[in-house]
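[SOLVED] Predicted holo structure with zinc ion

Edit: marking solved, answer below. Original request kept for reference. I posted the sequence and ligand SMILES and asked for the 3D complex as C-alpha coordinates.
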Amino acid sequence: MILHGFQTIDIYEIESNNLDKYFIEFRDYINDCEFAPSCSHIKEEKCCIKKALKDSKIREERYQNYIKIYNDLKDREEHKW
Ligand SMILES: [Zn+2]
Protein backbone atom coordinates (compact mmCIF):
# COMPACT_ATOMS: atom_id res chain seq x y z
CA MET A 1 0.00 0.00 0.00
CA ILE A 2 1.44 3.33 -0.98
CA LEU A 3 0.51 6.47 0.83
CA HIS A 4 -0.68 9.17 -1.49
CA GLY A 5 2.01 11.78 -1.94
CA PHE A 6 4.80 9.68 -0.58
CA GLN A 7 5.80 7.59 -3.52
CA THR A 8 7.55 4.51 -2.25
CA ILE A 9 7.36 4.53 1.52
CA ASP A 10 6.09 1.30 2.95
CA ILE A 11 3.50 2.53 5.38
CA TYR A 12 3.88 -0.52 7.54
CA GLU A 13 7.31 0.72 8.52
CA ILE A 14 5.70 3.76 10.08
CA GLU A 15 4.72 3.65 13.73
CA SER A 16 1.10 4.59 14.26
CA ASN A 17 2.04 7.47 16.54
CA ASN A 18 4.32 8.89 13.86
CA LEU A 19 1.82 8.65 11.07
CA ASP A 20 0.59 12.22 11.48
CA LYS A 21 4.03 13.52 10.50
CA TYR A 22 3.66 11.91 7.11
CA PHE A 23 0.56 13.91 6.37
CA ILE A 24 2.15 17.14 5.23
CA GLU A 25 -0.88 19.30 5.84
CA PHE A 26 -1.18 17.96 9.39
CA ARG A 27 2.26 19.21 10.31
CA ASP A 28 1.17 22.80 10.78
CA TYR A 29 -1.24 21.70 13.46
CA ILE A 30 0.15 18.72 15.30
CA ASN A 31 2.42 20.78 17.52
CA ASP A 32 -0.48 22.90 18.69
CA CYS A 33 -2.36 19.87 19.75
CA GLU A 34 -3.21 19.81 23.41
CA PHE A 35 -2.30 16.16 23.61
CA ALA A 36 0.83 16.27 21.46
CA PRO A 37 2.83 14.23 20.85
CA SER A 38 0.62 11.36 21.90
CA CYS A 39 -2.57 12.51 20.27
CA SER A 40 -4.02 10.03 17.84
CA HIS A 41 -6.23 12.79 16.36
CA ILE A 42 -9.12 10.40 16.33
CA LYS A 43 -10.76 10.02 19.70
CA GLU A 44 -9.48 13.16 21.36
CA GLU A 45 -12.12 15.82 21.79
CA LYS A 46 -10.02 18.97 21.63
CA CYS A 47 -7.72 17.85 18.89
CA CYS A 48 -6.20 20.54 16.68
CA ILE A 49 -6.38 18.29 13.65
CA LYS A 50 -10.08 17.89 14.15
CA LYS A 51 -10.37 21.62 14.50
CA ALA A 52 -8.43 22.17 11.28
CA LEU A 53 -10.72 19.67 9.64
CA LYS A 54 -13.75 21.61 10.84
CA ASP A 55 -12.26 24.82 9.48
CA SER A 56 -11.70 23.07 6.16
CA LYS A 57 -7.94 23.42 6.40
CA ILE A 58 -7.59 19.68 6.11
CA ARG A 59 -9.61 17.73 3.60
CA GLU A 60 -12.08 15.23 4.97
CA GLU A 61 -10.84 12.67 2.50
CA ARG A 62 -7.27 12.99 3.77
CA TYR A 63 -8.40 12.72 7.35
CA GLN A 64 -10.41 9.58 6.61
CA ASN A 65 -7.36 8.18 4.89
CA TYR A 66 -5.33 8.96 8.00
CA ILE A 67 -7.80 7.15 10.26
CA LYS A 68 -7.85 4.14 8.02
CA ILE A 69 -4.08 3.80 7.92
CA TYR A 70 -3.77 4.57 11.60
CA ASN A 71 -6.16 1.77 12.50
CA ASP A 72 -4.33 -0.55 10.16
CA LEU A 73 -1.00 0.21 11.79
CA LYS A 74 -2.42 -0.09 15.28
CA ASP A 75 -3.90 -3.42 14.38
CA ARG A 76 -0.58 -4.68 13.12
CA GLU A 77 1.26 -3.39 16.18
CA GLU A 78 -1.14 -5.20 18.44
CA HIS A 79 -0.78 -8.44 16.54
CA LYS A 80 2.95 -8.25 16.22
CA TRP A 81 3.53 -11.21 18.50
ZN1 LIG B 1 -4.56 15.81 17.79
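OP edit: Residues 33, 35, 39, 41, 44, 47-49 surround zinc ion (CB under 6 Å). Thanks to everyone who chimed in.
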